[in-house]
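Summary for the steering committee. One of the milestones for this cycle was to obtain a three-dimensional model of the protein with magnesium ion bound, which we needed before selecting residues for the alanine scan. The sequence and ligand used are listed below.
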Amino acid sequence: MEALYQLSYSPVCRRRRAYQRMARDRTPTWHADGTMSRPFSASSEAPSDLPSNLPSDMPPGLLPDALDSAERVAHGHIHQTWRVTDSAGGEWAVQRISTTVFDDPDALATNLRRVTDAARKAGVPTLIPVAVGPQELPILRYEDGVWRASRWIEGRRMQPSDLGDSRVAAAAFGAFDAAVSDVSGLVEVLPHFHDPLMRFDRLGVAVSTDRLGRAAPAMDLVSRLEQIRAARSEELSAWNRLPIRVAHNDAKATNVLMDTEGRAVVIDLDTVMSGTVLADIGELVRSTVRPVEDQITDTVVDPGLVGEIVGAFTRAFGSLTSDETALLGDAGLILTTENAVRFLTDHLEGDIYFTVDDPDHNFRRAEAQTALAESLVGASVEIADAVAMALGP
Ligand code: GN1
Ligand code: MG
């Protein structure tokens, strides 16, 4: 009997049935505003198995139904993401949260809930996270991992190499920042995130500590970055006095999806917290004027593109103060320099923050970003003109 049983129900099959049974018990409730919540308590769940192409430690109970398939999504340097299809055809984005980067995942979940609620109320299309447990927050601890899910958004990522897409992305971030501007109580999950002077200080510490003996070959890059810091010392100090609003803080064009209904949806909401909205303009510029991040290319910086981004963002966002307007032309340079400093610091600290392909990856990123920052310095007069044109009289 035992042999027969094993023949007709392979262990995988048995575990899958157990998973399906559990999934039935956790029928989701869809709310009128389009959000969803599910009764769930991680502690009451028995572990089960999942389709073989899913990570074996993915928690049961995170998704609403029996699961069919999954594929790893290769995007982003921080979390691990899978696209999962359930047996009813529903699609989900499942993420294992990097607790190395985000050491307070509960704050991350609370922020995400507040931000998506505010965006939805403002009529701005946004993510629909799966709310779990009595507090209905998008977070689930399981074994050693911290997980969450949201409905998969079928759509096309905006391509920074395409002018139309870049405009759409800039307008989407402007509208998003306006929609979340009144959200209060957001936790600063990554303190001093866009504080370039603090990033320089940390680079200095990494150079002098030189834990891995990687500093000597990096000194040329360090001094090129220091030159940019000296040339822009006033702007860098002024940056830290800008009005604090709520910003996305990771405003790459590729973090905007055009969904199948033609709506631009801003994603990757982990860093939505207090900060200057110029960080979003700066990141849009950095990631758009030269989309390849880890290779030095001979692409010439196009000042007109910077003007297009500033114009599209500000038209969607609304008015800025004179201090903000004064720094618009430098925002791209400041974010590019900051990223170069962060990549180089991580290289010297042993690649503990960014995911790398090889031990020199962060160094190559730092080199490419430094070269881009130098090109932006070289084009700064033309960029200022283009920004002034974009803002009009
Ligand atoms: C990280 O992984 P991704 O692309 O979403 C980083 C950004 C950097 C970017 C550089 C939370 O974003 O700040 O600009 O890498 N996000 C975090 O590619 O640190
Ligand atoms: Mg990101």
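Key point for the committee: The pocket of magnesium ion (ligand 2) is lined by residues 76, 250, 268 (CB under 6 Å).
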